[in-house]
Amino acid sequence: MARNSTAARGGAAQMLITVGKPKSAYVSQGLADYAARLKPYGGCTLRHLKAERAAKGKSPAQLMAAEAERVLAAMEPRLTAWALHIKGEPWTSERWARELKAVRESAAPRLALIIGGAEGLDASVLQRAQARVSLGPITLPHELAALAALEQLYRAHTILAGLPYHRA
């Protein structure tokens, strides 16, 4: 039923996949708030995956590879994935809306935003992603990047719906 009602409204079901859980209560509240705001647009599932613990003898590449297995396992085969990455392309809010519209009209209208752990995202996750998006040249804690990404996703939906939330 959810899939049909989502399609009828033109929304796409979304997921936010993060490596690690938010540590700050205000970030958890913000993520829950934007997930609730996204309900009319197909909803948003928050998936916080276990971060790999740094240990003696484990390289950053080994940590990222272990986390990548979890990320890839959480993704459905017919899923459009956008990886949030420092070397990604910075998108305007209008570009988020255009890209979201393309996803909604595609054969794979489910979207996942992916945010890696402390070491970043493994090459296997970046290869699986259809887009690499940057939130800009600043360094953000990953939990704040998750909150900013969810806000941009909500903003993109409101732009497409013609709502006054976005006033650029």
What would your notes on this structure say?
It is built from six helices and five strands. About 45% of the residues lie in helices and about 20% in strands. It has a five-stranded parallel β-sheet. It has about 170 residues and is α/β, with parallel strands linked by helices. It is globular and about 55 Å long. The chain has one domain: 3-Layer(aba) Sandwich (Alpha/beta knot).
Sequence of strands across the biggest β-sheet: 2-1-4-3-5
CATH third-level topology: Alpha/beta knot
Q: In DSSP terms, counting alpha (H) and pi (I) runs of 4 or more, how many helices?
A: 6
CATH architecture group name: 3-Layer(aba) Sandwich
Radius of gyration: 16 Å
- Major sheet summary line: 5 strands, parallel
| Shape, principal axes of CA atoms | globular
Give the name of the CATH superfamily: SPOUT methyltransferase, trefoil knot domain
Tally of domains: 1
Strand content: 15-25%
Distance between the termini: 36 Å
Quaternary structure: single chain
Elements, N to C (H/E): HEHEHEHEHEH
Estimate the helix proportion, in percent: 40-55%
Q: What top-tier CATH class fits best?
A: Alpha Beta
Present the secondary structure layout.
Layout: H1 2-9, E1 14-19, H2 25-37, E2 44-49, H3 60-74, E3 80-90, H4 93-104, E4 111-115, H5 123-128, E5 131-134, H6 142-161
Parallel strand pairs: 1-2, 1-4, 3-4, 3-5
Helix pairs in contact: 2-6, 4-6
